[in-house]
Amino acid sequence: MSHLFPDFDDTDSSVRRSLKGKHILMTGTTGFLGKAVLEKLIRAVPEIGGIYLLVRGNARHPDARERFYSEIASASVFELLRSEDQEGFEAFLEEKVHCIKGELTRPRFGLPDAEYERLSSRIDLVINSAASVNFREELDKALTINTLCLDNVAHFARNSGGIPVVQVSTCYVNGMNSGEIHEDIIKPAGADIPRSEDGYYQTEALVRLLHDKITDVRSRYSGKLLEKKLVELGIREANHYGWSDTYTFTKWLGEQRLMEALADQSLTIVRPSIIESALKEPMPGWIEGVKVADAIILAYAREKVTLFPGNRESVIDVIPVDLVANSILLASAEAITAEQARRIYQCCSGSMNPVTLGEFIDHLMDEARENYAAYDKLFCRQPTKPFMAVNRTLFDAAVTGIRVPLSLASKAMKMAGQNRDLKVLRNLDTTRALATIFGFYTAPDYVFHNEQLMALAERMGDSDRELFSVDPRRIGWETYLRKTHLGGLNRYAMGERRVYSLRTRRERRAAAAA
């Protein structure tokens, strides 16, 4: 399959030289970031030896390869590859993409011993981007997916002869720490957790304690109430140790777990900030689903939210998905060729190309007012009300002050036989729900740094700085937010999903001969 960078010879790119002929195990490729990494790997490193995807079967698609074609290969992220060389793309998938039906949360991935050993003998590198990104996940589920399953990743890496692991984490393992946040092990902002001489935090006792609390909750509740209590337990424990939500707490625990298990092996942790639509690749604005900031944008576009807690002067750290995918592949190339070490890279914009929350809001609102008709799937009509970010105390007072009389009015109407909800009351509840989940991220008092990631890009050389750009200074925020991101939301996130049926070359040839 031809690649899309004809101006660069293979020998110019350290990444392509390092990954040529290698066999990579990837997880999380049904997710937004995982698809972006897979697409860039196929497009920019066609000389890869093989890509092995750990994919769960599900009720609709019990076979891993069937699920791959239905949910991954059919995604809009591959439009460029299909348009450039559909024949070559399908051939690449058939020859070099191998789907393994397994479960990351089970020992040995739930594979039969012989299959597990065969897989172990083939793989040169693991890229793990699987995660539960639900900020308010039930604690038992978040622990299983974001923390405990990393024991299985570490076991596989050791069983494969000590191969490198690239773990995708998040800058927000920072939790409630404030100030300048560098690419290092994060200290909890809350209750003390014992720290090892090697720098990582020892979490075994804490995980046992959390399991005991989960068991206690399970013994006292059931059904929907049990789910609610496990969510509340996760938030409470996260807050106690210094995190705003269960997602970031369990991702931090996962980092520590891997650092301990792979203390004598190569481990690279890549921490993105808030991942949003692509800056350039594979298409400007490409996105899948509604991300952190987009939930608020969409609620505003639907006239449900006009007030939100936040600090207009704070730096909100957003990073396009293609820069994150490039960071992962730079880190992967280094992990395969460099000496064994523990490395941490943050893929972020806040220290080198900051945009404040106020600027972020103003760019989007200006575009919405001036060109709303261009985003027909987002905006039903021109927005008339401003979107205001206010401090949390004022927000809580305003929402409570407005909601109480409206709630009383709604009850009075129902008692009078007028059984209809007040739209304003529903909108307030939407605002409050979004603020509960995302309010922490819109009033940041920290700045993420990426000096080590930029140094890695510098070491890789000129070609790779173009092929695999990670430089946030390339983002022009006004153009990106007003045109690229809103356009991408309208086209990809809000558009109808295209059903793309892939057939093997054998099937296509048979059909042509019929």
Automatic annotation (TrEMBL):
Q: Which residues form the Fatty acyl-CoA reductase C-terminal domain?
A: 404-495
Occurrences of domain Thioester reductase (TE) (ranges):
27-328
Residue stretches in coiled coil? none
Q: Which domain of life is it from?
A: Bacteria
Key word Lipid biosynthesis present: yes
Q: Which InterPro entries match?
A: FAR, FAR_C, FAR_NAD-bd, NAD(P)-bd_dom_sf
> What keyword terms does UniProt attach to this protein?
Lipid biosynthesis, Lipid metabolism
In which family does this protein belong, per the annotation?
A: Belongs to the fatty acyl-CoA reductase family.
Task: Report the protein name in the record.
Answer: Fatty acyl-CoA reductase
